[in-house]
Design a protein that fits this description.
Distance between the termini: 40 Å
Order of helices and strands: HEHEHHEHEEHEEEEEEEEEHEEEH
CATH class of the largest domain: Alpha Beta
Oligomer: single chain
CATH topology of the largest domain: FAD/NAD(P)-binding domain
Strand order of the largest sheet: 4-5-3-12-13-14-11-15
CATH superfamily of the largest domain: FAD/NAD(P)-binding domain
Structural class: alpha/beta
Radius of gyration: 21 Å
Length: about 375
């Protein structure tokens, strides 16, 4: 398949800004760039048919961290960095809800629970007041974490830690709305396009079923998150695969909310009377440091066993869906937002919190590009 003159001239020539990646970060970068440069030609290219990364394959949690995760972070990072992380996640969630109406993305203000198979560690109980003060200092949110009793009839300890400000959403409905939002503003969105190489001022791309071709955008912006190493080596970025399972419908499922276990490595929720469960990459961490979609049977069996033993111990759980999503981690939880060269910029490494911080990364990245154009 060869592109026509009309197709090339309309979409691939005289590009002011070419954004690679149409996930949350790439799409919101385009949105905010258009506000800074209303007359610019902005093109977003995406190699997938929806979006190939975690934006459309995540578990649909609007979370900003559990007590266990925050205390784990404090073991290797100063309090100032944790504060910065919390602030960015909360402000990012607020920005996302400004961009996408709650009813469009099926947002549920259901709260989140941190669960335990044994008694809650005393350290967690001792630090709840301290963490509530930290969250309040950067967000104004009151009494984020409280200790509650379980009435879900699970196999976990009855005592849990509740986060009243968490929720769940439908990530593809959210992303589809953001795509509609940018195309309405006149931004070009091209799917099924892979970037093969980039040199000074030239991108080598390939449409599905077409020949390679070179395009020459004035500026290139990489929003490729976990897949960035394929294009830009030597970044502090490690891809991490997460496996997600969804059960068959379960009659009269009373479980409600979002749930976290083991510092957030395992997570689950009720979606339309089905159990969604995912994560556990830490039980085979080295093998899951990959940007290749696929499965890990050790983790799949662990998640199934966990669901059966603890989430619904009194009835059989069968599964209908299984997929993997790739997140980007690194030595720090702070995302990479920077200028690579005169006309190249990057916004990646969402750390598994793309729903929470993706739109804020996009806004910050667009501001960086704008400020460097003056």
């Amino acid at each position: 398949m060869n592109l026509s003159y009309w197709e090339k001239s309309e979409s691939l020539e005289h590009i002011d800004f070419c954004i690679i990646g149409a996930g949350i970060v790439g799409t919101t970068t385009a949105y905010f760039l258009q506000s800074h440069f209303p007359n610019a030609k902005i093109v977003v290219i995406e190699r997938g048919t929806i979006a190939n990364g975690a934006s459309s394959k995540n578990a649909g949690f609007s979370c900003f961290g559990s007590v266990g995760e925050m205390l784990d972070d404090l073991e290797s990072n100063p309090e100032s960095e944790l504060l910065e992380t919390i602030e960015m996640r909360i402000n990012g969630l607020r920005l996302l809800q400004e961009l996408v109406p709650k009813e469009i993305m099926d947002y549920e203000s259901c709260g989140g629970y941190e669960v335990f198979t044994d008694t809650i560690p005393n350290l967690f109980l001792e630090k709840i007041h301290y963490l509530n003060k930290l969250v309040n200092s950067v967000s104004g949110l009151e009494n984020t974490f409280t200790v509650v009793e379980d009435n879900f009839n699970t196999g976990f300890n009855k005592t849990m830690i509740f986060n009243q400000h968490e929720g769940g959403l439908h990530p593809v409905k959210m992303l589809n709305y953001l795509h509609q939002k940018i195309t309405y503003k006149g931004i070009k969105l091209l799917k099924g396009v892979e970037v093969l190489d980039h040199k000074s001022g030239v991108l080598t791309i390939q449409f599905i079923g077409s020949n390679k071709m070179d395009i020459k955008p004035k500026n290139t912006i990489f929003c490729t998150n976990a897949f960035t190493n394929d294009l830009i080596p030597n970044l502090d970025l490690t891809p991490a695969r997460n496996i997600v399972l969804v059960s068959k419908p379960i009659f009269n499922l009373t479980l409600n909310g979002t749930f976290h276990y083991d510092k957030g490595y395992v997570y689950f929720r009720n979606i339309k009377n089905r159990i969604l469960i995912g994560g556990a990459r830490n039980i085979d961490a080295q093998k899951e440091e990959t940007s290749t979609f696929g499965t890990n049977q050790k983790i799949v069996e662990h998640l199934k066993s966990f669901a059966q033993k603890y989430i619904l111990p009194n009835e059989k759980v069968d599964f209908d869906y299984q997929w993997s999503g790739i997140i980007a981690t690194g030595s720090a939880k702070k995302p990479i937002i920077k200028q690579l060269s005169e006309n190249k910029f990057i916004g990646v490494r969402s750390g598994g919190m793309g729903v929470a911080i993706g739109s804020l990364i996009g806004k910050k990245l667009a501001a960086l590009v704008y400020n460097n154009s003056k």
